[in-house]
Design brief:
- It is built from 4 helices and 16 strands.
- Strands 1-2-3-4-5-6-7-8-9-10-11-13-15-16 form a 14-stranded parallel beta sheet. A two-stranded parallel sheet has the order 12-14.
- It starts with 7 loop residues before the first strand and ends with a helix.
């Protein structure tokens, strides 16, 4: 089950650690991350940070970022061997990445190194016990074949240049998947993910997602995918509770041509070419609807048969006069 924290608290380049405050924040259900932007700030504090890493679970973590004009030395990680949640992101370069093999307690890892040199980094044995992984490779083509060994992985955000994408299908326990800037590669692997509930497709380019068959996905988000214009297989997502479509300028129509019994929330934003949204009567549990900055005609849309469950409707063209009239119409119809 994907964990959601109340807040994400970042403690930046600390000279001292307030252990009592950190403990209170963690007990209050927050995520706490100690972060460092340059080696000058490491001092002797990393050993204290490691003591806290040993005490707490992956709600408490460490982040290394920036290090402008420097390559981050991953040997630094040997000073925090008990780290369970680690972020190496917003970094241009890093070296000695093999040091990750010494982090036996690691459960959550985020890697965003622009010039990541080790395209086989997922072959490091200690990573195979990860529960959560976020990795983007912009320069080298990241080899995903090692996912066969990631039996505990439940959350994955992967993007950039990749090969062997089909290996994602071996992640039997995957609950959350985000594909970032991955273009054209077919998505048949998703059909093997029987526990997948959250799917996000961000950036990159593809025309459709027809490869995805009947599934258990409850949350689907498609955002700023270049060339995307066909969502005719949306009714294959029969478990869907929440659908978000954003920044899809080539998408002309969304039609629910058969009943979708689970869908509760539908959000469509900045799809300027979208002129038709039909079949709303096929969504018997829909309670929240947002239609923002599309080419849908409000008068034509609002007079179609809408589900009785619908209580909240937000419709905006971002033209002030038209939006005032729309809000008045929605209020008269009893929508929030």
């Amino acid at each position: 089950m994907r964990k959601i924290w109340r807040k994400r608290i970042l403690i930046n380049n600390p000279a001292l650690l307030d252990r009592d405050l950190i403990e209170r924040d963690l007990h209050d259900g927050n995520q706490v991350i100690i972060q460092f932007s340059h080696p000058d700030f490491y001092g002797s504090i990393l050993e204290e940070v490691d003591e806290l890493c040993a005490r707490w679970n992956e709600d408490f973590g460490v982040r290394f970022y920036a290090h402008y004009s420097l390559s981050f030395d991953c040997h630094t990680l040997l000073r925090i061997p008990h780290v369970k949640m680690l972020h190496l992101d917003s970094l241009t370069q890093a070296h000695n990445t093999e040091a990750l093999a010494k982090l036996d307690h690691l459960r959550s890892l985020s890697i965003g190194i622009y010039e990541l040199e080790n395209s086989e980094i997922l072959g490091i044995d200690t990573l195979h016990s990860l529960n959560k992984l976020n990795i983007i490779s912009d320069k080298k083509t990241l080899n995903l074949q090692y996912f066969r060994e990631f039996s505990d992985l439940e959350e994955l955000h992967v993007g950039g240049k990749v090969k062997n994408l089909d290996a994602i299908g071996y992640l039997e326990n995957l609950n959350y998947l985000a594909l970032h800037s991955i273009s054209k590669l077919p998505l048949h692997c998703i059909n093997r993910l029987r526990k997948l509930e959250h799917l996000r497709i961000l950036l990159g380019g593809r025309e459709h997602i027809h490869e995805i068959e009947e599934n258990t996905i409850e949350n689907l988000e498609i955002t700023r995918v270049r060339g995307f214009h066909d969502l005719t297989n949306i009714t294959a997502f029969q478990a869907l509770k929440r659908l978000v479509i954003e920044d899809q300028i080539q998408l002309k129509e969304i039609s629910f041509n058969q009943e979708m019994k689970a869908l509760e929330e539908l959000s469509i934003r900045n799809c300027k070419g979208l002129t038709r949204l039909t079949g709303m009567e096929q969504l018997p549990l829909l309670h929240t609807l947002r239609i923002l900055k599309t080419a849908i005609d409000f008068d034509s849309f609002i007079h179609q048969k809408l589900p009785n469950s619908l209580s909240s409707v937000e419709f905006a063209t971002f033209k002030s006069k038209a939006d005032r009239e729309i809000q008045q119409s929605l209020a008269k119809l009893g929508f929030q």
